Amino acid sequence: VVILERSAWQHISAGHPEMRDRLDDILQAIRTPNLIQEDPLDPDSRRYYWLKPTSFGRHSRLYVMVVVGIDNESVNGKVRTAHLVEKPKKGTALWAAKK
Question: What is the pLDDT of residues 8-43, one digit of tens each?
């Protein structure tokens, strides 16, 4: 289970204004990611990537990246932040969608 708390949503919408109208995209990235990676900076976090099927501004392909903090005891997670990226960052893949 991944939880998006109000405080995390406020952080995302204030710190990443391009995400203000993208709540559905964040939820989509959590529900049906294309890729899940370990976060090399924080072993208790995972990066969820979802390739957005439509263009955004000058970009024809963008990923929604959602950083989820994992509670190893309960295996639940909480969204920490989210933003748009042109491609997944380098990191260890934990899961990838079949092409």
Answer: 999 999 999 999 999 999 999 999 999 999 999 898
Q: Residue range 3-8: average pLDDT?
A: 96
Structure tokens at 6: 């109000």
Element of type H or E holding 23: helix 23-31
Q: Are strands 42-52 and 35-39 parallel, antiparallel or unpaired?
A: antiparallel
CB 41 within 8 A of CB 47: no
Structure-token pair, residue 83? 């933003």
Closest CA to 46 of 16, 24, 79: 79
Residue 21 to residues 38, 51, 83, 91, Cα–Cα distance (Å):
27, 17, 12, 28
Torsion of CA 54, 57, 61, 65, to 10 degrees: -90
Distance CA(26)–CA(8), nearest Å, equals 12
